[in-house]
Design goal:
- With 159 residues, the chain is an alpha+beta fold.
- It has 2 domains: 6-92, Immunoglobulin-like (Sandwich), CATH 2.60.40.10; 94-158, Phosphotransferase system, lactose/cellobiose-type IIA subunit (Methane Monooxygenase Hydroxylase, Chain G, domain 1, Up-down Bundle).
- It is 29% helix and 30% strand.
- The chain has helices spanning 94-107, 116-129, 136-144, 150-158, and strands at residues 6-12, 29-38, 44-51, 57-61, 63-64, 71-77, 85-92.
- Strands 1-2-6-5 form a 4-stranded antiparallel sheet, with no helix packed on it.
- A hairpin with a 5-residue loop joins strand 3 and strand 4 (57-61).
- Helix 1 (94-107) packs antiparallel against helix 2, helix 2 (116-129) runs antiparallel to helix 3 (136-144) and helix 3 (136-144) runs antiparallel to helix 4.
- The longest helix is centred in the middle third of the chain and has 14 residues, at 94-107.
- The relative contact order is 0.14.
Amino acid sequence: MSFDRIVVEDVAPVVAGGRHPAKAVVGEHLPIRATVWRDGHPPVTAVVHWHGPHGKGQVVPMTADAADPDTWHATVVASAAGRWTFRVEAWTDAWLAWREAVAAKAAAGQDAAALANDLETGARLLDRAAAAVPHAASAAATLRDASLPLPDRLAAADA
């Protein structure tokens, strides 16, 4: 799959155009917001990389705003005093793009034979994810199993 550029802008909090750090106290819930968009229709996913004063970091998933899907939100909490940094990262969600495309084709009446290449593409995405996601290998095998009805094969992608 080939995708165009992704834009991350209007990241907040920001003080004086970024010249000064935003401030919070230990335990305070700090909202992070960013506008994330891309050319075309494939969906994006965004996360906040949140790093503390001792070098330990965490990745916090962001959620798209229901009213404005280009606006993404997350909340982070400082667990210790000191300088904390964050950055927003976004990428095309190839899995979600695949699922949406195949669901639309199946709903339009395409059968398993017509979706053979799409099912193989989904299986290959799962193969790549299998090292990190325990059920991905069996889901990939189910997508490839031509003896199963199409709805059962597609259900494996949702598990």
